[in-house]
Amino acid sequence: MVRRSHTHLPDPIFHEPIFGETDKLPDPNGFSTAHPSDGQLYKEIGDLLTKDVVAVPPSRAAVDAVVPLADAYGSHGPAVTKLIEDAGKIIFHALGDSGASNVRKYANELHVADQVTLDAASSTGGNRPAFLFHLGDVVYDFGEAQYYYDQFYDPFRNYPAPIFAIPGNHDSFVVPNTPEGEEPLAIFQRNFCAQKFGITAEARSLHRTAMLQPGVYFTLDAPFVRIIGLFSNALEDPGVISNLDGKWPTVSNVQIDFLRAQLKKIKTDGYKGAVLLATHHPPFSYSPPDTGSGTGGNHGSSTVMLQQIDKVCHDEGVYPHAFLAAHAHNYQRYTRIVAFGGKEIDVPFIVCGDGGHNVNPLVRAARGHPAQEPHAGSDVGYLEGKHRPSWAKQLLLEKYDDQNYGYLRVHVDKEELKIGFHQVGVRTLAQSRYDMVTVNLADHTMVAN
Fold first, then answer.
1. Where does the pLDDT of residue 7 fall: very low under 50, low under 70, confident under 90, or very high at 90 and above?
2. Which CATH number do you get for residue 407?
3. pLDDT band at 207 (very low <50, low <70, confident <90, very high)
4. pTM (predicted TM-score)
């Protein structure tokens, strides 16, 4: 295909999706659009970041509808689905917080994007990742249209598969005096929630058609797995998915209705595949107990959000096999042991917010006390907060990495869900699998490798 020299081509040209360049392009040298420092802006709007939420745009789809992976592949969808089913497994990537907000951070984003691209391009047959699920904060600092090229399209220019996404807080927070129609969620929807295949102006000269999600919350239905993605809104902390507590009337309860309908459908259909739930803000993010051992990282737990999710899951009798989140700029893996359906089940809660923007320490020194890092397997039930449900029996911090960037490589077959975290070194392109957890789909038992 001929490379485009214009910023936009008429949509009718694109009858089929395009996921990347047909020829591998060299790494970019830097931003094409200079990104000024937002340090002063953060000072000016710091208070707003703690209280300004945005309305949740309604989905085009019914609350119980799912998005088949095949739709993202156009006419090639049936062949891709058959390849996955014949292989007896599906592989996909997940990561969050990839956007590089300035030149100093750009190389780190490129390292991660290059590694997932290399993994996808070098794998063959049923081992090739079928898609990437982005856990939010695609574009820093506040989802501006002019930075989509630098922070999304260019780094992932050669990724040869569809990229789905839920918005993060940086993809949704509205800076004061933003022109009408240029709100971050409007731009996000133009690039990820399009109604037909087409190249957006944000992609400029690169070939990646906009994704066809029905909204900022949706369920991706792929062979062997369903991923329920929720939009956890625009606050720095905590994540907000509804107005059930009467605190956020702007947000509405549309996502609660959606989650309830999706879990009901899973139960009614007798769905046997893996069920994953994804939010940008993590239900759990480590902070030490108040014992003078330092303080937590830059972002905390969103326990009220989890309580609302828990209630819907409990009401419908369906609990996901795993939770995926980002926002905190490191890797964390928890095991939550819950009494559910008459038995105890193990549920991994995974934070993967080190996709390129930054890597933050898990614990920081505070008030003259040195930071004391936790041991693997530490009981951190106190993170559940005072409203911890009686059926949540234990919460363990199993493993973490706050030094390296990285991404998740997820494997699902008829029997097991395997989630591996792959490190991408800060100073080199070297990458390796640092952690792996395996969940038995039938009984929710878990083994770490």
1. very low
2. 3.60.21.10
3. confident
4. 0.94
Q: Flag whether pLDDT at 4 surpasses 60.
A: no
Residue 319 structural domain? 11-448
Q: Answer yes or no: is 242 within a domain.
A: yes
Give the separation between CA 259 and CA 63, rounded to whole angstroms. Answer: 8
Alpha carbon 48 to its chain centroid, in Å, reads 24
Q: Is residue 185 part of a domain?
A: yes
Instruction: State how many domains the chain has.
Output: 1
If you compute the radius of gyration of the chain from its CA atoms, what whole number of angstroms results? 21
Q: Is residue 274 a contact partner of residue 225, using CB atoms and an 8 Å limit?
A: yes
Instruction: Look up residue 219 and give its two tokens.
Output: 């369920």
Residue type, 13: I
In a domain, 402, yes or no: yes
Query: Do 191 and 166 touch, CB atoms closer than 8 A?
Result: no
442 burial type by CB count under 10 A (0-12 exposed, 13-18 middle, 19+ buried) = exposed
- Cα separation of 432 and 425, whole Å? 9
Amino acid symbol at 179: P
**4 occurs within a structural domain:** no
pLDDT digits (tens, 9 = 90+) for 68-121: 999 999 999 999 999 999 999 999 999 999 998 888 888 899 899 999 999 999
